[in-house]
């Protein structure tokens, strides 16, 4: 069954995969690259600093270094930026 995932659901799946450590070498790097690719389209709409903050926070969440509350704060900030951009393009 095909369905869409929220960003949080996708990151949780990556977090679970990372915890299983399926790769002998570069396990963390592998999942960090997956996360960066998931965020690629969103990051194109952000400044380079904001994009880096989002990618870094998401990758660290997947690795278990950043907690859900910190990820939520960053995502809320990014959501606010994207909503403002969307509203300004409609006018």
Short description:
With 91 residues, this protein is mainly alpha-helical. It has helices spanning 7-20, 27-43, 48-62, 68-90.
Overview of the structural elements:
The chain is mainly α and 91 residues long. The protein has one domain (7-90). Helix content is 76%, strand content 0%. It contains four helices and no strands. The N and C termini lie far apart (39 Å).
Question: Keywords for this structure?
Answer:
91 residues, 76% helix, single chain, mainly alpha, elongated
Write down the domain tally: 1
What proportion of the residues is helical, as a percent range? over 70%
User: N-to-C terminal Cα separation, in Å?
Assistant: 39 Å
Task: Please give the number of β-strands.
Answer: 0
Structural class by sheet pairing and helices: mainly alpha
Contiguous runs where pLDDT drops below 50 for at least 5 residues: none
Shape: elongated
What's the topology here?
Elements (H helix, E strand, L loop, with lengths): L6 H14 L6 H17 L4 H15 L5 H23 L1
Helix pairs in contact: 1-2, 1-3, 2-3, 3-4
């Amino acid at each position: 069954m095909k369905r869409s995932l929220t960003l949080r659901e996708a990151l949780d799946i990556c977090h679970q995969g990372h915890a299983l450590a399926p790769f002998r070498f570069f396990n963390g790097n592998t999942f960090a690259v997956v996360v960066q690719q998931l965020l690629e389209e969103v990051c194109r709409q952000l400044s380079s600093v904001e994009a880096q903050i989002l990618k870094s926070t998401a990758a660290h969440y997947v690795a278990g270094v950043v907690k859900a509350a910190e990820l939520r704060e960053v995502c809320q900030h990014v959501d606010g930026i994207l909503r403002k951009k969307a509203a300004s393009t409609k006018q």
